[in-house]
User: What shape does this take?
Amino acid sequence: MFGVLLPLILVVAAVAAVGATGRLELAHVQVAGQPTAILEEVPGPDAGAACALDAWYVDEPPEGLRPDVLGAWQRLRAEAGEQGVRLCLQDGKRSTGQQQREFTEAVRLFGTPELAGIYVLPPEKSMHVKGIAIDVQPAASAAWVERNGHALGWCRSHQDEYRHFEYDPAYATAGCPAPLPVATGPGEVPGPETGPVCPLDKRYVDEEPQGPRPDVLDGWKRLRAKAETQGVRLCVQDSKRSVAQQQREFTEAVRRFGTPELAARYVLPPEKSMHVKGIAVDIQPTASAAWVEGNGRALGWCRRYENEYWHFEYDPAYETGGCPAMLPSATGS
Assistant: This one.
């Protein structure tokens, strides 16, 4: 009899756990006589309302987070509110299935699991699946969390994701660990070797940005969309390069200009290149680059070198702090 009743008990408990929303909501607390839900299978929202600060983003409800993480998120949001700062939750909890869909799409976009893993981790490695991670938008709100969140247990985890924070109560007393370059640690991320011809000027190409940091790619999409609303077309002559790609460029420049010092005025070695770091784009033709110089700062893009009208670098701090003074060249002289 017990062998018959046990499956029935499990079914009844599972049905009760689904509740009024029609999806699994039990999660994290053992109840006598009932099964414990597997945290990794607890889903989060697939979307949310538009973020009140920037409709480019959403502000989803924090469903599915571990109870202690949910409490910490609520405290963080309350503290921000007291200081007049609004935090939009772009992403919180994901189930294994939700994360797998994200990862599968990343593999489709970037070609290999290794490259996709720079941007979206597989489910078994994701802190969103474990229920301890949040993505906060827009950039100014994320910057506030980076400055103030550690006192409440929230720390930025990855250099390439200004929006991504993870919770650990130990951070409140021990401080934040150094963020990793990317979620998988250091990686050799290549960009395209070329692209189709720029329709504005056939001397240039318009490559599809592949491999830049996710926040930079997002910033680029917003820049291009704004340009299009003003009837301006931007062609990407160059963007992300791997160490190997940059080394080839630098070696060729040394051959052309005679010395590494002179070559570096035009092409930096890999260890100094912002293209390798994934935060730079080269825009052509001249009129398009001039538009970016005049309008890009509001979206985090600034021209950096006097001798390269086409070269722009992304930093969300530029949106509020303005562009730094341009250097004469990439070497500073």
